[in-house]
């Protein structure tokens, strides 16, 4: 009975996505900073929570999808950067990471090989580096 009511209530509503998760984490960080250092930030944190709730229960799906697409334009590259840093950290003992001096392509080579000659896979330029 209550389950069907809940189902009917949630039908056609947007639900949650990565932007909502981002808003909740942002709210958590802001309320932590706010409680320790600058209290008006707590209002901004509550604003982020309320916005996340509003998005979850919204029936205006096209508007929420537009917001999400806008968010992903910034978050996509940022998330990729965080993934790369995590990968670099986990492989820091076995690989050296460096960029191609010509096209800035991210490259890696096994550590402990001394001075090596590298051919960039993207632009085919050849340069030397130490691993
Ligand atoms: Zn290159």
Tell me what you see in this structure:
There is one protein chain. By secondary structure, this protein is an alpha+beta fold. It folds into two domains: 2-90, no CATH class; 93-131. It is 57% helix and 15% strand. It has helices at 2-10, 18-36, 41-57, 61-90, and strands spanning 95-99, 106-110, 115-119, 126-130. Helix 2 runs antiparallel to helix 3. The longest helix is centred in the middle third of the chain and has 30 residues, at 61-90. The radius of gyration is 23 Å and the shape is elongated. The N and C termini lie far apart (66 Å). It binds zinc ion. Zinc ion binds next to loops.
Overall, the morphology is elongated
Number of strands: 4
Helix content: 55-70%
Q: What oligomeric state do the depicted chains represent? A: single chain
Based on CA atoms alone, the radius of gyration comes out at 23 Å
Give the CA-CA distance, first to last residue.
66 Å
Largest sheet: 2 strands, antiparallel
Unreliable residue runs: none
The strands making up the biggest β-sheet line up spatially as 1-2
């Amino acid at each position: 009975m209550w389950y069907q009511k809940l189902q009917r209530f949630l039908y056609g509503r947007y639900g949650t996505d990565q932007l909502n998760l981002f808003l909740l984490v942002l709210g958590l960080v802001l309320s932590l900073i706010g409680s320790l250092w600058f209290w008006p930030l707590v209002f901004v944190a509550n604003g982020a929570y309320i916005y996340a709730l509003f998005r979850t229960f919204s029936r205006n799906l096209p508007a929420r999808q537009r917001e999400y697409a806008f968010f992903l334009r910034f978050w996509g590259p940022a998330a990729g950067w965080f993934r790369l840093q995590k990968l670099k950290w986990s492989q820091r003992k076995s690989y050296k990471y460096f960029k191609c001096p010509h096209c800035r392509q991210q490259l890696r080579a096994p550590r402990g090989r001394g001075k090596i000659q590298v051919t960039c896979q993207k632009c085919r330029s050849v340069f030397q580096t130490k691993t």
